[in-house]
């Protein structure tokens, strides 16, 4: 056991310290919403026959929180809270055995309105270049060596505790790590090697995670503030374009790129596709389409074969599909389906994990939701987005992490 100021690294396998974390492969799930931040499953292959039940391989208590587990090579990384500490844990993906754990003190006074969701971190870590980057619920950004859990750097705890806690998952571009820290703080770019602040924007931002995208040949960070959607030059933070998007409600939906457009939504704001481009050297943003039939508050939609699929907050949770190119409503499902759904996709399938632990496997269709199978994957609420790696489903409930696998019946 090695102890640093306020940080404890517990190495459970001697060989771990000498191991180099693997590079990304087709089955890796390295960040929020997957490899491309679009809800894509990693390396899933549809079985010829779907089993009546999934097989539970292991369950491990990892602590409270809504962070998605990351899968890199033969390891799973879980970010959570235990008592007054935030904890980053590395587990063996096959067995669930703990390889290492790093903890640091993270005092947090939970606001009464969020007690139901607990004090655990809500931002998903980021794996890049053999390092892990986390954003704790109080706004602390940390960098860890993925091989052994050693703390590489950590910013200071914000003087003012975030009112509802942070929830925006970090993103990266080159050597820069982007995160919204503090109480509605601006987007900050950190040097990934040292933790030094490279640039910081003005404005007040909320809970939507940033998206890295190239538009009109320019690499940029797209993020959502309390009153606008902004495109920022990735390397220096210069504001390229803004789009008014003010709402008294929560902005928590990660922007989604499709065909050179940026799709955005927020509570009671409908869904819009923005078209940023340069004209005579100046950036212009047009509304390519707008749909007010549906609106997303917490569920991030996905695009499958030019079809945008999501869960509308309206009618107490209603699945929907829009034409991703025109915004036309294709279908609306029945009401009262879920308060929140985490959606993943392949080229032909949808995986919809409702907050009541029901996992729906459905065929992606422009005619209506076509369920194939329904599975129960936890005994308690599942607000965290799952990670799908190959034919493995890593599901986080209130405080445990479970690996489920497909087992086809004998012919």
For the structure shown, list the relevant keywords.
globular; 411 residues; 6-stranded antiparallel β-sheet; 34 strands; Lipocalin; 4-stranded antiparallel β-sheet; mainly beta
Task: Tell how many strands the DSSP assignment holds.
Answer: 34
Largest sheet: 6 strands, antiparallel
Describe the global form.
globular
Structural class: mainly beta
CATH architecture of the domain at 167-292: Beta Barrel
Strand order of the largest sheet: 1-2-7-6-5-4
User: Distance N terminus to C terminus?
Assistant: 50 Å
Q: Tell me the strand percentage band.
A: 35-45%
**Approximate helicity band:** under 10%
Q: Mean of the pLDDT scores? A: 91
CATH class of the domain at 167-292: Mainly Beta
**Count the helices. How many?**
0
Low-pLDDT sequence parts? 13-22
Integer-rounded radius of gyration: 20 Å
CATH structural fold name of the domain at 167-292: Lipocalin
How would you describe this structure to a colleague?
The protein is mostly beta strands and 411 residues long. It has a domain at 167-292: Lipocalin (Beta Barrel), CATH 2.40.128.630. The chain is 0% helix and 45% strand. The protein has no helices and 34 strands. The strands form 8 sheets. It has a 6-stranded antiparallel beta sheet, with no helix packed on it. The radius of gyration is 20 Å and the shape is globular. Mean pLDDT is 91; it is low at 13-22.
């Amino acid at each position: 056991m090695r102890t640093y100021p306020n940080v404890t690294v517990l190495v459970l396998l001697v060989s771990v310290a000498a191991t180099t974390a693997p590079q990304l492969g087709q089955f890796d799930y390295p960040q929020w919403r997957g490899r491309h931040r679009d809800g894509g499953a990693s390396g899933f292959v549809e079985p010829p026959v779907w089993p009546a039940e999934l097989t539970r391989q292991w369950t491990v208590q990892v602590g409270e929180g809504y962070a998605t587990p990351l899968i890199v090579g033969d390891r799973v990384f879980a970010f959570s809270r235990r008592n007054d500490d935030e904890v980053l844990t590395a587990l063996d993906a096959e067995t669930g055995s703990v390889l290492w754990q790093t903890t640091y003190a993270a005092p947090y006074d939970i606001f009464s309105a969020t007690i139901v969701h607990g004090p655990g971190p809500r931002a998903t870590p980021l794996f890049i270049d053999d390092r892990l980057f986390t954003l704790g619920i109080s706004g602390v950004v940390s960098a860890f060596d993925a091989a052994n859990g050693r703390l590489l750097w950590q910013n200071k705890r914000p003087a003012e505790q975030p009112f509802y806690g942070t929830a925006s998952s970090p993103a990266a571009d080159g050597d820069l790590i982007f995160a919204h820290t503090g109480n509605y703080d601006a987007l900050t770019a950190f040097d990934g090697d040292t933790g030094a602040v490279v640039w910081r924007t003005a404005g007040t931002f909320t809970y939507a995670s940033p998206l890295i995208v190239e538009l009109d040949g320019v690499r940029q960070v797209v993020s959502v503030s309390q009153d606008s959607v902004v495109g920022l030059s990735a390397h220096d933070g210069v504001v390229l374009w803004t789009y008014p998007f003010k709402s008294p409600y929560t902005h928590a939906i990660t922007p989604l790129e499709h065909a050179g457009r940026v799709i955005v939504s927020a509570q009671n704001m409908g869904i819009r596709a923005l078209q940023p481009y340069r004209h005579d050297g100046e950036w212009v943003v047009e509304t390519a389409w707008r749909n007010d039939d549906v609106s997303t508050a917490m569920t991030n939609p996905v695009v499958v074969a030019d079809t945008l699929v999501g869960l509308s907050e309206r009618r107490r949770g209603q699945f929907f599909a829009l034409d991703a190119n025109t915004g036309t409503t294709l279908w609306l499902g029945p009401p009262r389906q879920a308060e929140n759904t985490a959606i993943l996709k392949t080229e032909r399938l949808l995986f919809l994990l409702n907050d009541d632990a029901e996992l729906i496997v459905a065929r992606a269709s422009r005619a209506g939701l076509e369920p194939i199978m329904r599975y129960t994957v936890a005994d308690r609420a599942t607000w965290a987005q799952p990670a799908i790696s190959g034919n493995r489903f890593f599901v986080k409930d209130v405080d445990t992490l479970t690996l489920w696998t497909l087992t086809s019946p004998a012919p």
